[in-house]
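hey so u asked for the seq, here:
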Amino acid sequence: VTTFMDVFRNAYGEKALDLDLNNSIKIATALSVSYEGDPLKAKTDYDRLVKFCLDDKKVGGSIPLCAELALEITKSGEKFKSHVAGVFIETYEFLRTTKDLNLQISTALDIAKRVVEIHPVAGKNYIAAMKYSLSKDGLKLPIEKSLSFAFEIAQGTVPANANEISDIETERLPANQKE
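ran it, structure tokens below
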């Protein structure tokens, strides 16, 4: 109930996002009553993602766009104990600021969202694969092939113990080690 009210106030409040009543209720319900994970984690991720998205130096999105994007990304992490906001932001910023990439905002948002939907640690694997695939000491692939290669690597992200979804940051197997 506390999470519902906090999220609703932040979505509907005139000095907050100032969304309409229906969207405010939809977001508050999705991140509390309907959320299958920890609603406090959801609220933290959602708030961080909205703030990031609204920042003109980051995404500079509209309030409705940022509210919806933050909801989608937060919901994608409900089956994990780890937060998804930080990984999403790190992946997005890598795609936007890496000299050889400098992807458009919409493309970077789409890729970061798809990567985070795989698993919270998939972003780290994606970034490592991108660096290696673009490096002159690595694969030296063209950008399009690097994007595909890195996504394939990210899709292979599996928790150390696949039966127990946990805070994977510290509990994953190295790529060269089998269970």
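The CA atoms of residues 35 and 78 lie 7 Å apart. The mean pLDDT is 89.
lmk if thats what u needed
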